[in-house]
Amino acid sequence: MALRRGISTRRKRESTKSAACPAPRRTAGPRRSVVQVKFPGRGMALSYYNDRFDLRKGDQVYVDGKLEGQLGQVTEVSYNFKIRISDYKRVIAVVDTRVKGRFFMAGSHFVTFDPAALPAAKVSLWFKAPAKEGEEYVSGNDGSSFPLTGLKGMNVSGAVAERGYEYFLENRVRYLCLDGTHGYAIVEGSEAYELEFSYRNGQVSGLSCTCFCSCACKHEFAVMLQLRKTLDLIEKHYGDEYRRSGYFAAIDKDSLFSFAIKGRESGSLVL
Question: Which residues pair with 45 in a beta bridge?
């Protein structure tokens, strides 16, 4: 009986010690970190808490707080820390700048006919922060349409058309894609604006822009000019590729270089 009591006592002590100093548990998902983010547009760098992404130095991110909506770049990542969470804002999105696919020259833009090479959902974060949770958008249209070859049907004023033409010449239509009949574009003005439209048999309908103008705007006019030019170049040089896929995405050359190539330390290009 004395022997049994001795065994019982040792087990009890071991159990108590284990409860007091539990071994660290490995949790699935991204590693928690504190990251320093530099905002080139503001000339400043701040620290943020991250528990949603596996971040690395060089990643481009969006954060909440006073710099919400500003694109920043991760300059440091620390996994050894203890902080009071209420003192820190968070990283809310990471930009995926990986690009893989075949691209063709199309004037001021590169164009691809591979839907997986440069999808709109990926590229939209290159230019603007994700929508806030709970934000809802609705749109409507009167069913009218106009021919892409005759943009007078847009009923824009001379001043709007002139500004739209300037945007077109300045390559402010950063991204444009046409998937079947559904079109999507990003135009950079005072901020990045998103546009949607339908294109069928040479006719454009349902054109809308997130600048929320009550009439046809300069962003829409610029996109129509870019769509017309891009389709002309595709038909001239890459008609078979486009007909096979029924899809194209075009991005201006500077944007592709800035996001997908500049700053990379490895990889290759085939020209």
Answer: 38
